[in-house]
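Kindly inspect this chain:
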Amino acid sequence: MSIIEAKDITYEYPDGTEALKNVDFQVEKGKIVALLGPNGAGKSTLFLHFNGILRPTSGEINVEGQTIDYSKDGLMQVRQKVGIVFQNPDDQLFAPTVVEDVAFGPLNMGLPPEEVEKRVADALEKVGMNGFEKKPPHHLSGGQKKRVAIAGILAMDPQIMVLDEPTSGLDPKGASQILKLLYKLNEEGMSIIISTHDVDLVPLYADKIYIISNGEIIKEGTPHHVFEDVATIRNANLRLPRIAHLMEILKKEDKLAFSEKYPLTIGEARKSLVEFIENPENSE
């Protein structure tokens, strides 16, 4: 069952620039889906359609089978179901303290104070930011700001979380913490959509990948299905994950044959190499 779906979405900016061209995109309930593409490909523009920040020039966005209603009440309803975390958390954090920022969404939903307090406490605990309630957001590190921005969305109890370049600007440890958090949220039942141009992260978490280039979806499928199409990946100004690239070189230069055409993770690469060592007759 699709929890969110874009049908034949076209979007033109006021100056006539066509940013999205007949885009079809769907997410099954409880899955992690990655939208992969270079800068300027249309990832952020598509994401802003998912909770009604942008309205398509043509086509429609369906959330739980219902087309988005762009009235004030309709947008409030869809934004309780679909939460967006922007690439730059400074675009999202504005209150004097962390606790006030995280409480902003639930308060605007008209929830009673005791429910708001509970949601804020639960959200901060989930992202590992309890104890920072009185801190000004602008005093936090980049990774801490990302986690507070995610907490602000969690406090609204959405069914779908959309994250635009969630690891952008973070060091490896900070990126790993954010991705582990998203994986945990997904295990708890949340549907997650991530936009990124970091191809190394995608195979570790995504159930399905869409490739977007110049405002068009040019490939979709499982990580293996997508990354086996090397020509499409490179024509979209992307690259193979480093593990897959290494195995591609080994296969080409040493004439090795692997059970996986392009292993995408360390675990898959190890399995393929062990199989080759144990069965060297498989070399080409």
